[in-house]
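Colleagues,

For the teaching module next term, I've prepared a clean inverse folding example: a structure given as tokens, and then the sequence designed for it. I'd like students to try predicting residues themselves before seeing the answer, so please don't circulate the second half yet.
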């Protein structure tokens, strides 16, 4: 029996889910096959991702581990310093048996697309989806170009503010609801001091703000993220917050093109599935980026679904994934939110945070991250 599955959203989650389903059309013991419709424009991706052991293990389960390692830069440690005076606060080393990488989003996307292009049961439709309704035992999907599609299942990989999230749980988020923002850019390494090309994550903790950087693309490009409140990110934010710092002034001097991204704090909807529409990736879990887990957790969703497909037909496997992953993710989402709150401390609480990290930061953080990085699928 062939089931038609529409995946809405061609971001990293959408195309990875599409590849997994296309490759595993004979996976279920009843011989169910899947025809995949990937709906939406291809994204223009900038910047990078850090992938921790759990995300990489999920990619291994999906068959993308080698491709990720080939395109990524293996990172040796996370080095945490204070923005106020540059002093070292803590270091989290990644031992030989714990692989942690920095990877360009577009590099990973291309590696997945190369495999997707070899699948015959995938059709890519660039037009965005406009509406979803139930039509007897099918789901009716109307696209912006006027097409109407009738499909057995819809997988909503259309991000935090997509159509599927509002269909499943009525949620609508707006940039106004975001009190904090991430400024992201991607700079050529040769425009910066060599410090930025080191195979490490630099985390610089400031007063109500923080900065993260790591190399990607064979250390030729550097991903940078600066997180701060909307008040701090006024028109002169680079001159005020980066230029006084002995290292970050080089970033301001390079005049990068920053993209401003709202950071939402409300994470998990109560349900990930309604009728035959199932959320996955950011559409299901808005993960504050402070533990670098969002995309990694999307890959865990997909690996979990793949494992379920060995036991169950697609509808049941999607239902199981929605229930189990929503429950598994509660603790990681709370930890990511709490980490963000600690990173945003300012004044005396910020100084206390830095002192505590200086005293036992490595031990504290290793414990904090141990279960997050542990592969659970
Ligand atoms: C500052 C920052 C740093 C981060 N760092 C990390 C990190 O280091 N490691 C990590 O693992 N994660 C990180 N993340 C999280 C990661 O970026 C996301 O989890 C990941 O990109 C989610 O991918 P997605 O495909 O689920 O959603 P998206 O990337 O949002 O893709 C959704 C896609 O759906 C499309 N779409 C929307 N509506 C429709 C429609 N109606 N029809 C068709 N298509 C539609 C959109 O155009 C888009 O292409 C970070 C996030 C931020 C903000």
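(Answer key — instructors only)
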């Amino acid at each position: 029996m062939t089931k038609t599955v529409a995946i809405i959203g061609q971001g990293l989650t959408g195309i990875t889910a599409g590849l997994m389903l296309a490759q595993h059309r004979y996976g279920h013991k009843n011989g169910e096959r899947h025809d995949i419709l990937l709906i939406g424009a291809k994204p223009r991706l900038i910047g990078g991702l850090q992938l921790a052991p759990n995300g990489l293990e999920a990619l291994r389960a999906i068959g993308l581990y080698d491709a990720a390692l080939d395109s990524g830069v293996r990172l040796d440690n996370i080095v945490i310093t204070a923005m106020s005076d540059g002093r070292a606060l803590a270091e989290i080393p990644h031992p030989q048996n714990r692989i942690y990488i920095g990877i360009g989003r577009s590099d990973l996307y291309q590696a997945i697309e190369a495999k997707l292009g070899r699948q015959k049961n995938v059709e890519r439709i660039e037009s965005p989806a406009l509406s979803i309704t139930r039509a007897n035992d099918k789901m009716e999907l109307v696209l912006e170009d006027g097409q109407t599609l009738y499909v057995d299942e819809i997988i909503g990989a259309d991000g935090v503010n997509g159509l599927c999230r509002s269909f499943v749980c009525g949620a609508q988020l707006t940039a106004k609801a975001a009190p904090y923002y991430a400024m992201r850019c991607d700079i050529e390494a040769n425009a910066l001091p060599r410090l930025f090309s080191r195979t490490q994550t630099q985390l610089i903790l400031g007063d109500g703000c923080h900065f993260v950087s790591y190399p990607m693309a064979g250390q030729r490009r550097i991903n940078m993220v600066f997180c701060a409140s909307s008040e701090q990110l006024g028109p002169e934010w680079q001159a005020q917050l980066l230029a006084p710092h002995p290292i970050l002034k080089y970033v301001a001097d390079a005049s990068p093109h920053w993209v401003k991204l709202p950071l939402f704090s409300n994470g998990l909807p109560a349900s990930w599935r309604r009728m035959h529409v199932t959320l996955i990736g950011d559409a299901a879990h808005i993960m504050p980026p402070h533990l670098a887990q969002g995309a990694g957790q999307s890959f865990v969703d997909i690996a979990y679904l793949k494992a379920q497909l060995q036991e169950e037909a697609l509808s049941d496997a999607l239902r199981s994934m929605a229930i189990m992953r929503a429950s598994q993710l509660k603790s990681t989402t709370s930890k990511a939110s709490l980490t963000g709150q600690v990173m945003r401390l300012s004044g005396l609480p910020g100084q206390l945070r830095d002192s505590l990290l200086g005293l036992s930061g490595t031990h504290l953080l290793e414990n904090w991250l141990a279960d997050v990085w542990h592969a659970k699928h």
